Amino acid sequence: MRKVWLISVLAIFISLFAGSNVVMATPATYVVKEGDCLWNIANSTGVNVDSIKQLNGLSSDLLHIGQVLTLSNSAIPAVVQADPVTPTGDSSSVYVIQLGDNLWTIAQKFGTTVDNLKALNGLTSDALYAGKTLKVSGSAASATVSRSGDSVTGSRVVAKAAQYLGTPYRYGGSSPGGFDCSGFSSYIFSQFNISLYRSAAAQYGNGVAVTKANLIPGDLVFFNCAGSGISHVGIYSGNGQFIHSSSPQSGGVIYSSLNTGYYANTYVGARRVIR
Fold this sequence. Notes:
Elements: H1 2-18, E1 29-31, H2 38-45, H3 49-56, E2 68-70, E3 94-96, H4 103-109, H5 114-121, E4 133-135, E5 143-145, E6 151-153, H6 154-162, E7 174-175, E8 178-179, H7 181-190, H8 200-203, E9 208-210, E10 220-223, E11 232-238, E12 241-245, E13 253-257, H9 261-266, E14 267-272
Antiparallel strand pairs: 1-2, 3-4, 5-6, 7-8, 9-14, 10-11, 10-14, 11-12, 12-13
């Protein structure tokens, strides 16, 4: 009799849970870590690759460390979309945040950096809300003057460098057909009439020294990857990241973290060549 009673209770328990829609909650956002790709993020969060790309306005599979991905429509309140506007009588441009936007994609769209957007708008986090306006240019930008006399900003240098993401690594290369590390940095700065020495070690003699705590976009960052002095160089892009021509195995021109992993351990110093 007791056995029959236990079976009945168990059957009721199973029927109650079978009839309910119990699902694992999907996080609203995900911060990209070193080694992540869209496929493993999709697997770990239960949100498919196409949905992640659509929610974040991604046109390719490229990600960068520290990028905040939206995984749910609830992460940003839905509003009627509006076109970017430039207010009359104001030298600053503003952008109306759209559903699926994040700081990184907006920075890429306007040729600036995440750090610059945060400075312009007084942001202390990466959180954005659809329908709000975001200043994308103005007096907070780190404008400087190059030796040629033309107006040059670190954000312009980084935006130019970002145009070559995915360009293959080629030893001795210094053109869009393929770059090595110093060939990449010297090519990018040459687009702004700034001449750098050709090798990474020699480029450490360009400009003036700057501490890691005071880095701004456009600064050159240097590494001792071979254990025998400076052997690698990249361009600081803000938000603890730098862009560089890494290696054939790493995919050529990529973003990497300055504060974690391999490059954090091999970092030597930085130089500022835009003054």
